[in-house]
Amino acid sequence: MLKKERHDIVMRQINLHNRVLTSDLVQLLDVSEDTIRRDLQELSDQNLLYKVHGGALSKSYHSTFDDSTVYAKEAKIIIAKKTIPLIKDGMVILTGGGTTIIELVKQLPENLQATFFTISPLVAVELAKYPKVEVILIGGLFSKNSQITYGGHVINQLAEINADLCLLGTSALHPKDGLTDTDWEINQLKKRMLSSSRKSAVLCISEKLNISLRLKVTALENISYLITELSPADVKLEEYHVNGLKLL
Amino acid sequence: MLKKERHDIVMRQINLHNRVLTSDLVQLLDVSEDTIRRDLQELSDQNLLYKVHGGALSKSYHSTFDDSTVYAKEAKIIIAKKTIPLIKDGMVILTGGGTTIIELVKQLPENLQATFFTISPLVAVELAKYPKVEVILIGGLFSKNSQITYGGHVINQLAEINADLCLLGTSALHPKDGLTDTDWEINQLKKRMLSSSRKSAVLCISEKLNISLRLKVTALENISYLITELSPADVKLEEYHVNGLKLL
DNA sequence: ATATTAGTTGCAAAAAGCCGCATAAACCCG
DNA sequence: CGGGTTTATGCGGCTTTTTGCAACTAATAT
């Protein structure tokens, strides 16, 4: 392995995850810690990354958005890791927005080969870091609150899509009322996304369970997978064991 | 074995694998290390590959991660400030992507009331911070390099838009050749953007002046405003005083 | 506060590279 | 054709780069 190649790989990791651990790189590149440290030192000298105890950070991750403030990040990472196995090479995937989905994207395998449709610009930017992933951003009116595109134009385009899997973050989930929301437009959007997709996965941190909002998107039965940070056997999930819904 | 033959073989290996090791080439070509080194040196002098300790890398593969810390930021802020007066309440504006445009967006007046169409997710996210601005993100294939949407779908949507002003960042500008570019798709895109808009402003840091790339987007005459960080009276801009083009 | 983990510095061995020189083949030209 | 010139290649010695190890220090965690 040439030194420059290692440097490139390190930079790729950094751009992908905004951070690298020395120990991870030792495994990944199969060289001694000293070599990794020297690599990081050199890249740092070239102002390409920010070296810290234990690894290094991206110099410019403020460009997209600051993820140190992501709420319940640990839980979201657990959810992301559980979701990965659902995603396989060759699939066509439709995603919504939100920090949970972004965490998921950051955990995707490096060489995933898939097509992603998304209504979230930030998700698109994250996805673009994967060389073999095709990203299609669905355009339309841009919502200032939820940072996704919405409105008739988006719905129309969604109608033309036939995805294998739809990944949704959640505002609220309830055993009886299913997936619910507060905003009429977003509600329409989610309905359309679900029907444009063969299967669907709802990513939901546990504190959003057992909440029900004004507008119903769909019943639990119409969701394929529910992914939380809890074990499927957890008592909090007891009421969610319904037909057709697989808990992860 | 002729030298030229060796060079060809080396280049084929490079294009195939993106890398070659000196030691591999010694075996493959059955010559001394010194000869291989001289070969690589010569090919490197001709800018055909990137020489490193231990071998060489493909020039295209060798990713240029550099200046993620926005390059020539000062100049870009000056340009942004000069551009602001062109933007008035009620206008419909079409923008491209790039760091110059993002700087511009950051300098917009807080209470601007306008409609923006953009092909850049990052610009959309920035624009969303202005409460009275309506943002429409034009969707389509997402380009990993330039971080904008492109392709037929984008062109089609642009065709339906009638904007007052089109704001473009620049890859290269030349007094004779006008606005030029290297990528065919991006080229088409810019052409379409210009014709979907009544007026157009090109934002261009001075070091990109007098450079001409392979593909022509449009002549200087078809641009309404050229905005650089220089004074309009600067000698470097002498050749840009043409009919219909206003320097700022 | 102490154990653990990460980092630093200096050193040595191996690998790669560089420089000058010698040789031989190819070329040039009257 | 023949002498001078250029070009291509390999060799030997010397330098630089890269890497891992060991001893020691600094930072972090329990």
UniProtKB/TrEMBL annotation, chains A, B:
SMART domains, sorted: DeoRC, HTH_DEOR
Boundaries of every HTH deoR-type domain copy: 3-58
Coiled-coil intervals, chain numbering: none
InterPro entries attached to this UniProt entry: Carb_Metab_HTH_regulators, DeoR-like_C, DeoR_HTH, NagB/RpiA_transferase-like, Tscrpt_reg_HTH_DeoR_CS, WH-like_DNA-bd_sf, WH_DNA-bd_sf
Any one Gene Ontology molecular-function term assigned to this protein's record: DNA-binding transcription factor activity
UniProt keyword annotation of Repressor present: yes
Keywords, comma-separated and alphabetical: DNA-binding, Repressor, Transcription, Transcription regulation
Keyword Repressor included in the entry's annotation: yes
Matches recorded under Pfam families: DeoRC, HTH_DeoR
PROSITE patterns reported for this sequence: HTH_DEOR_1 (PS00894), HTH_DEOR_2 (PS51000)
Designated name of the protein: DeoR/GlpR transcriptional regulator
Biological source species: Pedobacter cryotolerans
Upper lineage: Bacteria, Pseudomonadati, Bacteroidota, Sphingobacteriia, Sphingobacteriales
